[in-house]
Amino acid sequence: MAEQMTEQMAKQTLLEAFNAASYPLTGSSRWNVNQLLEAFRSIDGEQDSDIYGNGAIIENFQAKIASYLGKPSAVFFPSGTMAQQIALRIWSDGAGNKKIAYHPLCHLEIHEQNGLHELHHLEPLLLADKSRTIGLEDIQQMTEKVSCILLELPQREIGGTLLPFSELEAISAYCRERGIKLHLDGARLFEVLPYYKKTAAEVCRLFDSVYVSFYKGLGGIAGAMLAGDESFTAESKVWKRRHGGDLISLYPYIISSDYYFEQRLPKMEQYYHAAIELAELYNSCQHIETRPEVPVSNMFHVHAAVPKERLEQLFKAVYAETGVGLTRYVREVDADNSYFEVSLGDRYLGTPKDKVREALGLLGAKLAELKQQ
Amino acid sequence: MAEQMTEQMAKQTLLEAFNAASYPLTGSSRWNVNQLLEAFRSIDGEQDSDIYGNGAIIENFQAKIASYLGKPSAVFFPSGTMAQQIALRIWSDGAGNKKIAYHPLCHLEIHEQNGLHELHHLEPLLLADKSRTIGLEDIQQMTEKVSCILLELPQREIGGTLLPFSELEAISAYCRERGIKLHLDGARLFEVLPYYKKTAAEVCRLFDSVYVSFYKGLGGIAGAMLAGDESFTAESKVWKRRHGGDLISLYPYIISSDYYFEQRLPKMEQYYHAAIELAELYNSCQHIETRPEVPVSNMFHVHAAVPKERLEQLFKAVYAETGVGLTRYVREVDADNSYFEVSLGDRYLGTPKDKVREALGLLGAKLAELKQQ
């Protein structure tokens, strides 16, 4: 019987095991059609669609988020990929300088199939190295003139790390003095506000343009907002049309974005404290460390000095014994090391604390055994 | 009292009057959130979302439409603007030739803010003049070598006109012999199949790549499909990512596209006959002619030798007296002439014939009076 279980478990993927767990810990909900149905449950069906960027549904939401971000204007986009390429293109065209600067692990550098070059012919300068965030010194030491710098808060690909707010202020002042536009990749901006103890507007006033996402910590279906002054957003609408993003109807994303913004923005502080709590439990396990050690948002990365397949086996055993799902995937770093990302939301808040401790305790025990083998 | 009515009417926009009419004749439904709610009414909420182009929801629909179009493969896009620029870019890159050819009133030429040039640096050659469709001769007489030709069936901006199927076959053979790729702008392909008496696959086999839309005659919310051979669609996915169209979740558009495809594809023949019927009624009015005179799809344009404001007044009076809404807008051609587009769907089919005749009869009477003034 136990042997049969083990055989079944071996066949199951980690994702399947995670989805079957009673207490999946990451995210806010399963990524399925119910996300949409829930958001539309109380919506009046007679409400007119937006039409190619016009209409109350889109204009009201744009005004609401512009106001929240403390910017004169905002434009809803189907994706951040589109919004951010466009922001950099506008600043580059304005300065007549194709050079822009960002982090080597910036979304535009590693996740967009080189669209920034293939479509916009922009030339990125990479600031800082892969292991840390961009600091004021990196910018001061630039030897080439750039039209724009993109900063991502927090830097997702290194676990969600942040530079101190005072350094952000110094970077902003430095760039303004030199006429360098500063763009905020705020894919997870909402998520860092509790750590910074700032309003979104207090962060955004340091930047000339801002992108925020509605499906990261907020857990919407898709969609992004690009904010800035009126002339910037007017130009961004022309580029949105060019990119094929000016859809006749964007309301499926707008209504759901607005719904989850209202539902989950007030919980960002809870998600942040949950991440600190869970990271501490992970760090108490042998062979494991989180990056950052103490999270500054709802996310962190878990690095394990354990091969990917081995870690997956351990996790499946933990899920089976405790009913707690820790991660849906593990990625290989090299033959001996692996990692995964943790991003917390409603699911963690809804899980009994003793279940979380039980699961991490069991994981710790299994990792300790591993060493002895 | 009558004066009061007139004053009210004068203040009302034509769109408001159209929306207030008991029998609006164009389109299939009001463009509002009910379109989405209806499509999702019978959908299982537990169905997993597509994730960045993967998952059963998107893959099954792509396979279904590829098969319907008789192509090896298809990719769902948020918009036709994105899909078509990408198709032309792929063919252009493949041939190492930035020249492509299309009609002067092609969507890419007049509705996309010059995206094809600004993003893809392609150089369009305009074939035929604005008043007619591209024919074989136009292509034979090209003096420059192009990588690709785009044909739109039907040519929307001139009322939805078509060239004979035999000429389409001749164009296809001519282009294949010369290694020129042929791309179909099939925004309204479903709508012309009853006239051609062909299956979609019979039309599409004349083309190397095909775009179809789910919100024109079908009345979905938004969304498009790009079809072709496997290597073409694989490349188009890379470009979709670059354009910012590879959204984490596209299912709000996919599910609604599939729903309205099933609902309305079988009615295209009825819509087509409705257009012939209504065009005949318009053509019986003085000062009015439709283009084409006899429609070949569910659409046609109505041209009036009447100034825009005057025509709007007449329409508002007809809507008020009969309850029938004929058009939501009128566009100025010049000081003496105006026009609008008619596209028929479920609403026309659901309107009693005597109401239609009553409205067009009254319009005819008012137009005849106009002449006598």
TrEMBL record, chains A, B:
Keyword Zinc: no
GO terms, molecular function: L-allo-threonine aldolase activity
Cofactor(s) annotated in UniProt: pyridoxal 5'-phosphate
Keywords of this entry: Pyridoxal phosphate
Gene Ontology BP term (one): glycine biosynthetic process
Domain of life: Bacteria
Domain Aromatic amino acid beta-eliminating lyase/threonine aldolase: 47-304
Pfam families recorded: Beta_elim_lyase
GO CC terms, sorted: cytosol
Record PANTHER family: L-THREONINE ALDOLASE, L-THREONINE ALDOLASE-RELATED
Family named by the database record: Belongs to the threonine aldolase family.
Stated name of the protein: L-threonine aldolase
